[in-house]
């Protein structure tokens, strides 16, 4: 049985998160709204009515002092909204909050966590200003441009009239019914031409080149691989799960393909050409080795390219542990998540160097396009202001809130 639990602030409590979203709409998109109230929605599958009511009554997924929870849609709070937008994760995208809610419910109810599923979504109740009544197209545009990252999320829009006629959303129900994360599809590589291969890579965000797709297809077509798959009860072509694994492990983020490639470089001023075989080995690792050799007995490098982060001699018997990383592409796709994983990863590595370094501080260099950009954006690109705000918040939550000053 599928249940939907809505949690939100009591009517007499100011929704500061909603006010922040409204202000963000004004700053980023120049769209004024009178008010926004945010509702957290939990869609749960695998429990009976008594179990779900217990979670609501005991305040397992909400704070009863500040919030109310209900299996029915929460009543509107004045000023009444004109539009309702609900944003949830796409099938296959990890819902960490949903997992935590699942594990908490399982612990409270004394059941196996694998027996239930919980998905989270956020509902935005938007009240328009008297002199700026938003149309459906405008609401859908602001949902795409600000409230939802369509790479990993999807959204639904209802007017207040539609909501009252048929309250609730089905946004997360599809995950459990028709679009379950457990569904595995076969990707027919063997029968796909170049155009179909490239389209599949674009549509699924594999970011694989045509040459790489050919390599994967050729590998699956070899007699040995075909025999191995048949013996294991696998289809001849790869499943979508296998393609995702290959795409991720062969991604720039994991494989560092540019650093490891042969680079054909031409100096436009002198016309001189050269081939660089592996930027990492030549320009980074070998350059460091050359400097260390020249330093001789004065070499201050204690550990480089061996552990999780570099270690150099510092002062008064102390060594300094330094880790540097860029997260440009992940942050461009998902500003908050990209920056958060970047800074958490950077902090993780010094803590895992040697017997563990004591973290002192983070330093960041941010480069963004103009936050006042007002021209049309290329497809699937986020507005620079949204990227800036997301990255700043990701660094705040991943760094400062974990006790490491920036």
Blueprint of the fold:
Layout: E1 2-9, H1 16-29, E2 33-45, H2 49-57, E3 67-70, E4 83-89, H3 96-109, E5 117-128, H4 136-147, E6 153-159, H5 160-165, H6 173-176, H7 194-203, H8 210-221, H9 223-231, H10 240-249, H11 252-255, H12 257-260, E7 262-266, E8 273-277, H13 279-295, E9 301-303, E10 310-315, E11 318-322, H14 328-333, H15 335-351, H16 384-398
Antiparallel strand pairs: 1-2, 1-3, 2-5, 4-5, 4-6, 7-8, 9-10, 10-11
Helix pairs in contact: 1-4, 15-16
Query: Shape, please?
Result: globular
- Structural class category: alpha+beta
As a whole number of angstroms, the C-alpha radius of gyration is 26 Å
Share of residues in strands? 15-25%
Number of helices: 16
Mean pLDDT: 92
How many beta strands in the DSSP annotation? 11
The separation of the N and C termini measures: 47 Å
Q: Walk across the major sheet and give the strand order.
A: 3-1-2-5-4-6
N to C succession of SSEs: EHEHEEHEHEHHHHHHHHEEHEEEHHH
Descriptive keywords:
3-stranded antiparallel beta sheet, 40% helix, 16 helices, 406 residues, 11 strands
Overview of the structural elements:
Helices cover 40% and strands 18% of the residues. It is α+β, with helices and mostly antiparallel strands and 406 residues long. The strands form 3 sheets. Strands 3-1-2-5-4-6 form a 6-stranded antiparallel beta sheet. It has a 3-stranded antiparallel beta sheet with strand order 9-10-11, with no helix packed on it. A two-stranded antiparallel ribbon has the order 7-8. Helix 15 runs parallel beside helix 16 (384-398). The radius of gyration is 26 Å and the shape is globular. It starts with a strand and ends in an 8-residue tail after the last helix.
């Amino acid at each position: 049985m599928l249940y939907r639990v809505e949690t939100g602030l009591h009517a007499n409590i100011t929704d500061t998160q909603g006010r922040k979203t409204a202000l963000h709409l004004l700053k980023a998109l120049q769209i004024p709204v009178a008010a926004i109230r945010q509702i957290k929605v939990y869609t749960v599958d695998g429990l009976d009515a008594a179990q779900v009511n217990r979670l609501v009554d005991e305040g397992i997924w909400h704070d009863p002092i500040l919030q109310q929870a209900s299996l029915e849609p929460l009543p509107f709070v004045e000023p009444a909204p004109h539009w309702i937008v609900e944003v949830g994760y796409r099938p296959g995208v990890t819902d960490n909050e949903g997992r935590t809610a699942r594990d908490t419910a399982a612990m409270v109810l004394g059941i196996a966590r694998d027996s239930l599923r919980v998905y989270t979504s956020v509902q935005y109740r938007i009240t328009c200003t008297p002199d700026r009544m938003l149309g459906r197209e405008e609401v859908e545009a602001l949902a795409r441009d600000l409230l939802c990252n369509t790479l990993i999320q999807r959204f639904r829009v209802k007017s207040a009239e539609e909501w009252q006629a048929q309250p609730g959303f089905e946004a997360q129900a599809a995950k459990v019914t028709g679009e379950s994360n457990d569904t595995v599809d076969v990707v027919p590589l063997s029968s796909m031409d170049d155009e179909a291969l490239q389209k599949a890579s674009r549509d699924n965000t594999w970011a694989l080149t045509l040459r790489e797709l050919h390599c994967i297809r050729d590998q699956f077509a070899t007699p040995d691989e075909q025999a191995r798959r048949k013996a294991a009860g696998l289809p001849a072509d790869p499943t979508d799960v296998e393609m995702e694994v290959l795409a991720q492990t062969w991604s720039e983020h994991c494989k560092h393909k540019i650093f490891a490639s042969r680079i054909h470089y031409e100096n436009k001023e002198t016309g001189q050409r050269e081939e660089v075989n592996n930027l990492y080995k030549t320009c980074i690792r070998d350059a460091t080795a050359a400097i260390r050799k020249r330093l001789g007995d004065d070499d201050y490098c204690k550990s480089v390219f061996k552990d999780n982060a570099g270690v150099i001699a510092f002062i008064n018997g102390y060594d300094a542990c330094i880790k540097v990383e860029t997260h440009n592409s992940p942050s461009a796709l998902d500003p908050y998540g990209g920056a958060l994983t970047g800074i958490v990863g950077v902090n993780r590595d010094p803590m895992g160097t040697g017997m563990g370094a004591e973290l002192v501080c983070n330093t960041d260099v941010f480069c963004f396009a103009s936050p006042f950009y007002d021209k049309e954006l290329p497809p699937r690109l986020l507005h620079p202001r949204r990227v800036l705000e997301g990255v700043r918040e990701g660094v705040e939550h991943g760094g400062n809130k974990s006790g490491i000053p920036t």
